[in-house]
Amino acid sequence: MTDSQEGMWLDDEAGRLVRPYTVSNGRTRPATHFDLLSLVMATGIRPKTYLGPDYDQVLTLCERRPISVAEIAARLRLPAAITKVLLSDLLGHKALTAQAPRPIEAASPTDRKLLEAVLDGLRKRI
User: Fold this and answer.
1) How far apart are CA 19 and CA 78, in angstroms?
2) How large is the average pLDDT for residues 19-28?
């Protein structure tokens, strides 16, 4: 969506002219689970039916590089729940791929290496 097209849907005083839940047809729960840190990338496959301008905007954001769900929501100025519904719909059309974040092993709060790394970092800031 170009800046002029986006301007049709935004008003300086009122905000979005189309309310967020209208974008997802009132749905607030996606068919697929997405973490806010999940990375999403366009596959190059376009949905067979036109889904709407917000879906086009999502695909444009995902074309060049993997992008997080949180960043997509921020750029679209939509709640994360609505963004996840859009992403879920596009995933169903095979227009997107998604990769959940890898879990990080929690370090022990008494792990000597971790404590030394924190101390080194603090010393560098001083």
Assistant:
1) 9
2) 58
